[in-house]
């Protein structure tokens, strides 16, 4: 029996796309196709070749190719979409909606044509609305259209908790629900270090500061970088999701999923904890929430609904 490597296409060869390609290859999750617009065909080929030339040094055998032609993405197992513009200081993610919705729709027309069986992961912002737009264009079942926000937001939250307590990040557990905006909902009650609830170790006031820093974590990086947004932690997040799917790990991680009644929401894409495995989103967990937590989640859902209404028009 001939075994073949998985094929992963990354659309958008900018900061997040190129970094994701490198991390995917370093983990040998499959062969990577890096795809950008025709005007950037040569730079995209150049980036892919440069990445590939790291392989003898780092000892990975994944292939990485650059292209502007969707035929090279044919029959991909996973398509990761990072295409679009990023925000600059002073902008919100929602300011990107009109430009990026057009880009997502045109990318997804091609994905639908060339990789109809793929599982699609969307990164482009505003990501809840872009995942909605992708779902509408692709016409794929909802388990195969997934947005990335919760892995990254949770990673920021866990980083800050580990720093606060001066403990290993490996022992921090927690997650962030809701939309990928400044009213996302880090769930303190479900957060622990080494199994110990964080509210027994950190004062309520400091926890609120950590929650607030998490909510504006993307903006903190945007302000520091000055001309673009985060890409290392976003790429690592995409790779964790891809690995969970390709290895059928059935990991429980927060992802942006289509809501069909879960938490009382319908016809929106929203960050919730889910089982991620070989079939994409295999199950969504509905957690019991306090009145305050549900009110915070409702506020976030309202913001997401407003941005999605722009995409629907
Ligand atoms: N959901 C999340 O957690 C995160 C989302 N993002 C978002 O990801 C997107 C990409 O960010 P970066 O990589 O930093 O931006 P970037 O500007 O470095 O790269 C974007 C790339 O997309 C390409 N592109 C534009 N239109 C395209 C099309 N029609 N087909 C193929 N490629 C196309 C551009 O040529 C460019 O190379 C932004 O919208 C950003 O806001 C970034 C980080 C985290
Ligand atoms: O903040 C941005 O614009 C990019 C992003 O979504 C993040 O880093 O969380």
From TrEMBL:
Binding site for substrate: 87, 93, 125, 156
Binding-site positions, NAD(+): 12-17, 36, 100, 123-125
Keyword Oxidoreductase set for record: yes
EC number: 1.1.1.37
Domain (Lactate/malate dehydrogenase C-terminal) ranges: 152-309
Domain of life: Bacteria
MF terms in GO: L-lactate dehydrogenase (NAD+) activity; L-malate dehydrogenase (NAD+) activity
Stretches assigned to the Lactate/malate dehydrogenase N-terminal domain: 7-147
Protein name: Malate dehydrogenase
Organism of origin: Paenibacillus pini JCM 16418
Lineage: Bacteria, Bacillati, Bacillota, Bacilli, Bacillales
Underlying gene: mdh
């Amino acid at each position: 029996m001939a075994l073949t490597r998985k094929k992963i296409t990354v659309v958008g060869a900018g900061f997040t796309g190129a970094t994701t390609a490198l991390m995917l290859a370093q983990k040998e999750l499959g062969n990577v196709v890096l795809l950008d617009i025709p005007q950037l065909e040569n730079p995209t080929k150049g980036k892919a070749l440069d990445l590939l030339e790291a392989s003898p040094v780092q000892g990975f055998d994944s292939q990485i190719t650059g292209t502007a032609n969707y035929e090279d993405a044919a029959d991909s197992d996973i398509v990761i979409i990072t295409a679009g513009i990023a925000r600059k200081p002073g902008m919100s993610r929602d300011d990107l909606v009109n430009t990026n919705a057009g880009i997502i729709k045109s990318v997804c027309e091609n994905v639908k044509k060339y990789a109809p069986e793929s599982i699609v992961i969307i990164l482009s912002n505003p990501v809840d609305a872009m995942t909605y737009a992708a779902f509408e264009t692709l016409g794929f079942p909802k388990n195969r259209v997934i947005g990335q926000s919760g892995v990254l937001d949770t990673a920021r939250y866990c980083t800050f908790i580990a720093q606060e307590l001066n403990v290993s990040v490996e022992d921090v557990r927690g997650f962030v629900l809701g939309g990928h905006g400044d009213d996302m909902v880090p769930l303190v009650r479900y957060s622990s270090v080494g199994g110990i609830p964080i509210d027994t170790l950190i004062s309520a006031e400091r926890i609120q500061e950590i929650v607030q820093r998490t909510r504006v974590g993307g903006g903190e990086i945007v302000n520091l970088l000055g001309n673009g947004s985060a890409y290392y932690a976003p790429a690592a997040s995409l790779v964790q999701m891809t690995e969970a799917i390709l290895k059928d790990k059935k990991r429980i991680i927060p992802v942006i999923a289509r809501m069909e009644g879960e938490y009382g929401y319908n016809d929106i894409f929203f960050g919730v904890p889910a089982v991620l495995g070989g079939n994409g989103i295999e199950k969504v967990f509905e957690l019991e929430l306090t009145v305050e937590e549900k009110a915070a989640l409702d506020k976030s859902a309202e913001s997401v609904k407003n941005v999605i209404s722009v995409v629907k028009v």
